[in-house]
Amino acid sequence: MTARFSFAIHATDGRARTGTITMKRGEIRTPAFMPVGTAATVKAMKPGDVRASGADIILGNTYHLMLRPGAERVDRLGGLHGFMGWDRPILTDSGGYQVMSLAELTKRSEDGVAFKSHLDGTRHLLSPERSIEIQRLLGSNIVMAFDELVPTTSTREVQASAMERSMRWAKRSRDAFDAGGQHAEDNAIFGIQQGALDEGFRKSSADALIDIGFDGYAIGGLAVGEGQEAMFGCLDFAPGQLPASKPRYLMGVGKPTDIVGAVERGVDMFDCVLPTRSGRTGQAFTRSGPINIRNARFAEDQGPLDPACGCPVCATWSRAYLHHLVRAGEILGAMLMTEHNIWFYQQMMADLRAAIGEGRLTAFADDFRARYAAKE
Ligand SMILES: [Zn+2]
Known about the structure:
The chain contains 15 helices and 16 strands. It has helices at 47-52, 62-67, 71-76, 80-84, 96-102, 128-138, 156-178, 199-212, 228-235, 256-264, 274-281, 312-316, 319-327, 331-357, 361-374, and strands at 5-13, 16-23, 26-30, 32-35, 58-60, 90-92, 104-108, 113-116, 123-126, 142-144, 188-193, 216-219, 248-250, 269-272, 283-284, 291-292. A hairpin with a 2-residue loop joins β2 and β3. The N and C termini lie far apart (51 Å). The structure holds zinc ion.
C-alpha cells in the first residue's frame, strides 16, 4: 500500500537534491515545478496537455476557489480532481497571501482575516481552521498552513510579530489538520517559514515549525519584490534551517534563473504564474532568454519558438504563425504560447534533475545562465 506521503532523496550535488515524493495520487519528481491552476484550471491548458508537459502536480488557490465556485460546492461535486479532470496530486495554498493582496476591507486579528470578496462584496473570515477545512473540502493532497504576510520592507517589529503570529497559526493549522475531515487519508500538510530576510527570524520560525512537525516545509515571504540578489542571500541560509529529510518548497518562484539558483541552494519545489501569465501576453521562454512574439521581427520568422524545445508547439508551428495569432488576439495564440512555456519549465526541471543525478549541476547551471542571458 502506498504511504500517505514519503520523500526519498536519490542524489545530492552540493546543496541541491533530486528525489521523489510519493503520494496515493502519484509520484512527484523533485526538483518540481507546479503549474498554477488558480480557478480549477491551468489557464488556457487542458489537464492532459499539462500532464504531457511533464508536470506531476499542480497548484490550486484556496482564496479564489472558496469564493467561486465555493469549497462546499466543489466537495458536493466530488472534489477538485474530478471537477477539473486532473487525477494527480494537487497542492493548495492557504489563501493567506491572496486574501491579503486581493480582498477588500481586510481586518486582521489573532483569530484570522475578515474580508469582503473582490467578486461580489460578500463577507468572509479566513482563519487557520477554516483554511484547512476549505483545502480538505477541495480534496487537496498537499495542504498549506495558514500564515500572515507582511512586506519585506516592513519594520523589524512588524516582521517579528507577523512571523510569531504565523507560528501560532501554524500550530492551529496542524491541530485542525490532525482533527481530520474530508479526504483525510489522502492529504499531507506543509508548514511555512516566515521571517522576511532576517537570518535570526528565519531560524526562530524554522525551529517553531520543526517543533510542531510537518510533512514538508515551505519558504514563504520571498519573491515579493526584494530582487534576486536579496532572495538568494536569504536562500543561502533558509533551506539549511529546515529538515534535510523533508521537501522544501519556495512559494511563488519564479523566473527560470531564480529557479536554477534556488535549486543550487537546496530547494525542491516551486510554483509561479509566470509561464502561464506570460503566455497570454505574448512572452515565450527560450533557452536564449525570453522573447516577445508580438515583436515585428518575428512576422516572417519560420523557425520554432525555441529550436532546442521538444514541445508539440515547437514541432508544428512557426514564430510567424504565433506572432500572427497573438497580434490578432486569437485564443489559440494564448493556448499555444502557454503550452510551450509550461513545457519549457518542465524541461528545465528535468534537466536540473538529470544534472544533479549526474553530479554536474554547477556546469549545467553556469551554461544555462550564460545562454539565457545571451539573448538572440
Ligand atoms: Zn516549445
